[in-house]
Amino acid sequence: MIKTVQVPSVPRIVLAKPGLDGHDRGIKVVAMTLRDAGMEVIYLGLRQSVEGILLAAEQENADAVGISVLSGVHMAITSKLLIRRAELKMESIPVFVGGTISRADASELRRLGAADVFPVGTHLEDLARRVKIVISDRELALP
After folding, report:
1. In this protein, which residues make up the domain named B12-binding (predicted)?
2. DSSP code of 36?
3. Cα(109)–Cα(101) distance, rounded to whole angstroms?
């Protein structure tokens, strides 16, 4: 049975491809899935910097940030993003990570502060449901 989640407003999510990774078909499919699930998606495109991603999240009043990393540098990039997010006092914005990620790395990314991790092969409906749950929980926790 699939759990449904009510989200009070239209969630806004910033998606980006950080680093030098040039393959963006997957994140574009994710963007369409999230749009079909009722979210507003701001896709920044390829080769985005951590600073640029967080600046866009702030400017767009994003409810979440999602990054896709297929080049094997997901630990370094996500760690840098989460550290910079804390420095900017943006911890209330959840960060999702997708890509070529092992089970062990997924656990470590969650331990570091990623809201959720979506390895290659994650069912799109499950991804959208899990993103909605995290955003809904965030909205309930905000003052």
Report:
1. 10-141
2. H
3. 10
pLDDT at 6 over 70: no
Q: Is the pTM of this model over 0.85?
A: yes
| Spatial distance between the Cα atoms of 93 and 57, rounded to a whole number of angstroms | 8
Predicted local confidence at residue 4, as pLDDT: 56
Half-sphere exposure (CA, 13 Å, Cβ side) for 17? 19
For residue 130, give both structure tokens. 């899990």
Where are the domains positioned within the chain?
A: 12-136
Cβ of 83: how many Cβ atoms within 10 Å?
13
Domain 12-136 = CATH 3.50.50.60 = no
Angle 32-28-38 (CA atoms, 0-180°, nearest 5)?
Answer: 20
Say if residues 44 and 56 touch (Cβ distance below 8 Å): yes
Residues 60/12, Cβ–Cβ less than 8 Å = yes
Instruction: Give the C-alpha distances (Å, rounded to integers) separating 90 from 36, 81, 112, 128.
Output: 27, 11, 15, 22
pLDDT tens for each residue of 12-35: 999 999 999 889 999 999 999 999
Between CA 31 and CA 141 the distance in angstroms is 25
